[in-house]
What does this fold into?
Amino acid sequence: QVQLLESGGGLVQAGGSLRLSCAASGSILRFNVMGWYRQVPGKQRELVAIIGTDGSTHYTDSVKGRFTISREIAKSTVYLQMNSLKPEDTAVYYCNAKVLVPATYDYWGQGTQVTVSS
It folds into this structure.
């Protein structure tokens, strides 16, 4: 049973910073990709940032230069450092762990609320 536990969300003023953490049960190297998604009411969940087993990263355009995804393999934890936050970053942020072989399967955390006030 895979468990992903997010923490670090909260309320911050525009221009501020937050760091989200996602602690996984067991080694994160089991997963082909780990990442962060976000969702606002009435909209689809969208990809924010992902990191592969080789450490390669990908970001959605709206967060490039402001957000950084990283990991600590020994702690089975993935982070999302969010700087220069904007009100439009307000959402519930979800940690995702993806397995691609033998079939694609997604694991999700429970989500953590990030609210950016103007």
